[in-house]
């Protein structure tokens, strides 16, 4: 027998359904993701820490989960909302059902929800805090649920990077002798980013987010990658300062949160988007070539285009949906960044060439 569950939004909007994850309750900013597949990659993306994810595709779980498609060491999303959870998993790579996987990591999940209605509400009202109440917690009164939601911490001003980052450095080395050494500052990096660097012939040294700029330079890297990650870039001032100290010392490539931290290190400002960009079908225009790439994205904050010094910073990419900044490059130094996820996982590979550009900068500045 399925146990009742409720999704309650901060403004009182209520959706009922059934629990298929862990019992209990969870809290986070409610967002939606438009991907038709890749749910395992989505829930293991550390950038989703602090968020409850609504998947807009109506059938989820039909191919199960497997060890190869994980994007980090565990599930980081706070909770999961779906229309229909498939109790039958059919894929030769599947080793576990999605429901059992979520229970193993103590993640609440609800099915039977009109996810189209949730998405429309978020688009109109904006992203807000929400709570999932499953099993026994679903017996609480609505007033009690709302009080718990309003007491939960939001994303603005909250440093979630320190929660998702590793505590000890580790190395990925290619089978052949590495041509280049890249240090990755782990703000919540996805494994697919490391795979791309490895395929480009890089030895990859992943370091905790609190690593000093002196220690980073002590590894004698050819380049630095500032990774994706969760939360508000304004809340990680220490990482922005580390980034600022490394500007001009080596080639730097920033992805998502890494892009935002570079923007702040350059003196720019960041702001909260109404409902963020989450999904695998966001069109981005390369301003130099005029080409359009369909990109994978996951962020709730953005760099303010008008806050950047145009004498030093060249805008390289723009989002065609809302004209927000999607990429920039320093005019003199070997530094560039993008707001989207060129590593995909899940999503299209239109922007994978950016890893080759990063390696190209390392070659020039060896």
Q: Could you explain how this protein is built, in words?
A:
- The protein is an alpha/beta fold.
- The chain folds into two domains: 4-151, Carbamoyl-phosphate synthase small subunit, N-terminal domain (Glucose Oxidase, domain 1); 161-364, 3-Layer(aba) Sandwich (Rossmann fold).
- The protein is 23% helix and 31% strand.
- It has ten helices and 19 strands.
- The protein has a ten-stranded mixed β-sheet with strand order 10-12-11-13-14-19-18-17-15-16, with helices on both faces. A seven-stranded mixed beta barrel has the order 1-2-8-6-4-3-9. A two-stranded parallel sheet has the order 5-7.
- Strand 11, helix 6 (191-199) and strand 12 (202-207) form a beta-alpha-beta unit.
- The longest helix has 12 residues, at 353-364.
- The mean pLDDT is 96.
Quickly list its features.
2 domains; 7-stranded mixed barrel; 366 residues; Glucose Oxidase, domain 1; Rossmann fold; alpha/beta; 23% helix
Summarize the structure.
The chain has 366 residues and is an alpha/beta fold.
- Fraction of residues in H or I helices: 10-25%
User: Which class of secondary structure composition applies to the elements?
Assistant: alpha/beta
> Largest sheet, described in full?
10 strands, mixed
The oligomeric status of these chains comes to: single chain
Arithmetic mean pLDDT: 96
Strand order of the largest sheet: 10-12-11-13-14-19-18-17-15-16
Low-pLDDT ranges: none
| Rg, Å, rounded | 20 Å
CATH topology of the largest domain: Rossmann fold
CATH architecture of the largest domain: 3-Layer(aba) Sandwich
How much strand? Answer: 25-35%
Could you say which overall geometry the principal axes of the C-alpha atoms support? Answer: globular
Q: Name the CATH homologous superfamily of the largest domain.
A: Class I glutamine amidotransferase (GATase) domain
* Total of domains: 2
Total beta strand runs: 19
Q: What is the terminal separation in angstroms?
A: 63 Å
Total helical segments: 10
What is the element string, with H for helices and E for strands? EEEHEEEEHEHEHHEEHEHEHEHEEEEEH
CATH class group of the largest domain: Alpha Beta
């Amino acid at each position: 027998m399925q146990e009742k569950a409720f999704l309650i939004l901060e403004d009182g909007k209520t959706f009922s359904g059934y629990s298929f994850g862990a019992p209990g309750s969870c809290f986070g900013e409610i967002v939606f993701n438009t991907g038709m597949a890749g749910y395992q990659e989505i829930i293991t993306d550390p950038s989703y820490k602090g968020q409850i994810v609504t998947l807009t595709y109506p059938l989820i779980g039909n191919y199960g989960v497997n060890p190869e498609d994980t994007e980090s060491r565990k599930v980081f999303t706070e909770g999961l909302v779906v229309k229909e959870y498939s109790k039958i998993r059919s894929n030769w790579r599947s080793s576990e059902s999605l429901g059992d996987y979520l229970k193993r990591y103590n993640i609440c999940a609800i099915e039977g929800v009109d996810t189209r209605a949730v998405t429309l509400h978020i688009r109109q009202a904006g992203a807000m805090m929400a709570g999932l109440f499953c099993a026994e917690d679903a017996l609480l009164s609505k007033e009690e649920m709302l009080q718990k939601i309003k007491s939960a911490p939001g994303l603005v001003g909250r440093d979630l990077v320190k929660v998702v980052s590793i505590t000890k450095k580790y190395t990925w080395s290619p089978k052949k002798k590495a041509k280049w050494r890249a240090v990755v500052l782990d703000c919540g990096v996805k494994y697919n980013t490391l795979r791309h660097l490895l395929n480009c012939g890089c030895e990859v040294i992943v370091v905790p987010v609190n690593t000093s700029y002196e220690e980073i330079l002590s590894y004698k890297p050819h380049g630095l990658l500032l990774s994706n990650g969760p939360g508000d870039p304004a809340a990680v001032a220490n990482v922005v300062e580390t980034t600022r100290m490394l500007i001009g010392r080596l080639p730097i490539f920033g992805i998502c949160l890494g892009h935002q931290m570079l923007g702040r290190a350059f003196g720019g400002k960041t702001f909260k988007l109404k409902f963020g960009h989450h999904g695998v079908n966001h069109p981005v225009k390369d301003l130099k070539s005029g080409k359009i790439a369909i990109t994978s994205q996951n962020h709730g904050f953005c760099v303010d285009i008008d806050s950047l010094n145009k004498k030093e910073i060249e805008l390289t990419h723009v989002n065609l949906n809302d004209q927000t900044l999607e990429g920039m490059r320093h005019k003199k130094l070997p530094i560039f960044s993008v707001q989207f996820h060129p590593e995909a996982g899940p999503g299209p590979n239109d922007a994978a060439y950016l890893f080759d550009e990063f390696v190209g900068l390392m070659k020039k500045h060896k």
